[in-house]
Amino acid sequence: MSRAMALAPNGESTIEESPLLLASGLDSGSPRSPDAAPRSLDASITWACLASGALMCLAPLQYGYHIAELNTPKGIITTCDKDAAHWASLPLCLPMNDAMFSLATSMFAVGGLLGSLSAGWMAERWGRRGALAYNSASFALGPLLMAFAMSPAMLVVGRFVSGIGSGVAVVIAPLYLSEIAPVNYRGTLNLLNQLSIVLGILVTLVIGMLANEGPYWRLSVGFGLVLACLHLSVIAFAVESPRYLWSRNRRAEATRILRKLRQTANVDDEVAGWQSVGSSNHAARSHAAGEPSARLEADCETPDTAKASDDSAHLELHSERSVVTIFNIFAIAEYRKPWML
Could you give the C-alpha distances from 18 to 1, 33, 267, in angstroms and in order? Predict the structure, then answer.
């Protein structure tokens, strides 16, 4: 039990907290004021935050792996070594000219473009963690197609599918890191994203050197399947972005996760910042739609409220800019103005 019964001076029984619970400061039922605990805005990176970020960064690590996976084994992929061991069920190599190999390499970028354009929709539809979990399908299918390629065309398709997964990963992973990081340490935590990409490149170069003989290039390009399965098996241990949960009105869950990430019960200031952004977004949408309530407020404006209206307009413009996507950028007047060179 974390609480003990005590007798008050008036004879009524009260509940006292154990010293362990008082030290933790994480009990929502505590009679102490939340202000007694450190503010989440002043928190540093905790182990819970670092662990969740590291698990999610297995996605950009796979992006780094697929960037350089064809660099080392190019020679044995395009030219058959007659003296090398041969796997009877699969071709020893995939003979192709430089143009075809260049196509296989560049299709990764084409897939990345499509993946990055769909990443925003996936992140809002399934959440940051859910989107990367579903994205593991692309990271698994791409290496499978390349490892069992019977023709250069299969290699090209495998690179394209891996590119889709990579495009999604490099958009959602930094977004997730920014949303779970303490306000003063967002740049620091986002270093995990670049570190993961570079580590993925290092891993693929090492494996490429070890498997640079005969048909073993298939193991090199197929190792991405192992990474995809590893990511899918551990992603459930990472928490969902509390900012995303709050935007979906799952506020109790968002607050609980935020307290876990910050290791403090006093998260009121940080949550208040989310509320102000949500209120400004709602005001911007109401103003743009010309709702009666918005027009009534404008008609009733007095000189005393002029400054408040100006501040609200500034918030509306800021909120519009904060939700700019590739699809709605042309609907915002500010971004339709011609560039002055």
Answer: 8, 16, 22
